[in-house]
Amino acid sequence: MDTLEIISYNVNGIRAAISKGLIDWIKQTNYDVYLFQEIKADEASIPHKLFEDIGYKQYWFSAQKKGYSGVGILIKREHTNVVKGMNIEKYDFEGRLIRVDIGDITIVNTYFPSGSSGEIRQAVKMEYLPEFFDYIHELRKERKKIIISGDYNICHTNIDIHNPVSNKKTSGFLPEEREWLTKYFDSGFIDTFRHLYPEKKDTYSWWSSFANARNNNKGWRIDYHAVTKEMKEQLVDAQIFMDVKHSDHCPVYLKIKV
Fold it and tell me: Which of 95, 152, 185, 243 could form a cystine bridge with 63, CB 3.0-4.6 A?
């Protein structure tokens, strides 16, 4: 059985993650594709040779603002059609999305805006959601098998967050954000981890830097691999590697048949 193994990982600064052992972890795991979000680096300051030396092609889409946002792909499989951006200038300016095709499968790596810094960014996030919805459904007209991975910055249901009651008015768990995610999944996409592990609790992908949250596992599951429903029979496994620590997020893993 030929399989494809994919990691999605908000690295909270690619150079910071490298300094914490990211390269060794990639060498050790040796997956087909690594999707990074929040690289916080312009392309010139990324140490390309480190990734070349371990056998990966690399594609980066940085934000115009230094030290902010940005996404990247490492890939060792045959691939085509790398596309940077959604063709929406205000989001492409922030380096929010990059796409690659492997045969009949399209992988979209996206970093949704965070609204946690206040009302202005929350408004940007709420604008992004319907525009992303339209973008992905337009893409679906030509590509049936799509994997949409990344940091969505939204917890979906109570099981995905350590304290749903006290966070119900917090960005990332607001009713309108969660409703959007329900609409998105209902429109033909599968939350792969929750599909395979519907009851699995206390499994998170991000922890606040406050109050020793990670050591106490007071986390949020905001990083996803979603797939179009056409790929349901190709799903093999989905995992969240909570013990891997190069960032305030951890890697999320997907394995599919190809």
Answer: 95
Instruction: Spell out, as residue ranges, where the chain has pLDDT lower than 50.
Output: none
Catalytic residue among 151, 160, 191, 223: 151
pLDDT number for residue 74: 98
pTM here? 0.98
Residue given tokens 């009651």 in the structure block: 165
Q: Where are the domains of the chain?
A: 3-257
The verdict on domain 3-257 having CATH code 3.60.10.10 is: yes
Q: Residue 12 CB: number of other CB atoms within 10 A?
A: 20
Axis crossing angle, helix 119-140 with helix 175-186, rounded to the nearest 10: 0
Whole-angstrom CA distances from 21 to 16, 24, 50, 155, 256 are: 9, 6, 12, 28, 27
- In this structure, which amino acid lies at residue 3? T
Active site residue 104: no
Nearest CA to 156 among 220, 108, 110, 217? 220
Nearest alpha-carbon partner for 239 in 254, 256, 220 = 254
